[in-house]
Amino acid sequence: MRKTDFTKALTEYFSIYLPTTCGVSPNTTNSYRDTFKQLLLFFQEKKGISANYIELRYLNMELVSEFLDWLETSRHIAVTTRNQRLAAIKAFAHFVQYKFPENIENCVDIINLRPKKYEKALIPFLTEDDLSLLLSQPDASTRQGLRDLTLLALLYDSGARVQELVDLRLKDVRLTHPPMVILTGKGRKVRQVPLMKDTCKLLDRYIRSFHSDSQSQMIPLFYNAKKQALSRYGVTYILKKYAAKASPVLEPQNISPHVLRHTKAMHLLRAGVNMIYIRDFLGHADISTTEVYARIDAEMKRKVFEEKVPNYTPNTTMPWEEDEDLLQWLTQFGKKTF
């Protein structure tokens, strides 16, 4: 295999820098890996350059912009994914500029690239009735139903990210007072999340049924037939399966594990819980991330007020403003015509 400065840099970046120097999580590493797999494919398909012949000098602002446009148009990725790919390349550029300073100019140009703006959709969440309907679908009298109900109830009650849920080990659950679950989030940050009484009862029943013979506290809390931890896709499948049973009230295509996290946040907000507590509960690094729920709640309340509350403010529209012909004439009045 022919080695260029690019192959050397990429190898060191993934094998040493990310896991050892930065200590990033496997999920972050996998996300960065996917970015560079697509970049290698772009070089092969669009530039006719195989991976063994790519050099660092080829990686400049123009090429990265072209690569991102190619992802969006040819691979049909969302703008959010495009921006994630850009973030991965920027992180690599930060590494390269110090390891291979002869490429610093290109690296600085790449680092200064701005993410693409997009219109953010309203955060989806379930009402209390929708959530009750969803959690009523699993049959807890069966072994599988008990597991699925416990999983969904814990996913909501803890506000966990799906990866945080599948990473849970038996040791991370404490049912003695005060009951809590210990979640390991982004950047390996650990937080303790209190559990509600009904969720504790479900967990106690589930653990006695599924972990009665467990020899180690390190066994995954939720596992498959092979005693391996459920994957994120496995959790999503379980959730969508029960959402489909609750159709047409719930739409499976619009339900995801993260929707339950949004739901918990909105329910806490509407219960009057302090924003700082919600931030810590969700494991947000910045309060501005949490404040998006308050903005959504305020917008929804405004719409309800407009629909339900009588409007006593007098109409200030002038009569001539309703006459389109007159309005057009006044708009053009005084303008020179040639």
Description:
- GO terms for molecular function: DNA binding.
- Belongs to the 'phage' integrase family.
- Residues 4-97 form the Core-binding (CB) domain.
- It contains 14 helices and 3 strands.
- The mean pLDDT is 88.
- The protein is mainly alpha-helical.
- Helix 3 packs antiparallel against helix 4 and helix 11 (257-270) packs across helix 13 (287-308).
Question: How are the SSEs placed, and which strands pair?
Answer:
Blueprint: H1 5-22, H2 26-46, H3 61-74, H4 79-99, H5 104-111, H6 128-135, H7 143-158, H8 162-166, E1 173-174, E2 180-184, E3 190-194, H9 197-210, H10 232-245, H11 257-270, H12 275-282, H13 287-308, H14 324-332
Antiparallel strand pairs: 1-2, 2-3
Helix pairs in contact: 1-4, 3-4, 4-5, 7-9, 7-11, 11-13, 12-13
Structure described in brief:
Site-specific tyrosine recombinase, which acts by catalyzing the cutting and rejoining of the recombining DNA molecules. With 338 residues, the chain is mainly α.
Binned strand content: under 5%
Mean pLDDT: 88
Task: Write down the Rg.
Answer: 26 Å
Distance between the termini: 72 Å
CATH homologous superfamily caption of the largest domain = Intergrase catalytic core
- Which percent bin holds the helix content? 55-70%
Low-confidence stretches are none
Widest sheet: strand order? 1-2-3
CATH fold assignment of the largest domain: hpI Integrase, Chain A
Number of structural units classed as domains: 2
Largest sheet: 3 strands, antiparallel
Extended strand count: 3
Question: Tell me, what's the shape?
Answer: globular
Element order: H for helix, E for strand: HHHHHHHHEEEHHHHHH
Task: Examine the secondary-structure arrangement and name the CATH architecture of the largest domain.
Answer: Orthogonal Bundle
Q: Strand pairing plus helix content: what structural class?
A: mainly alpha
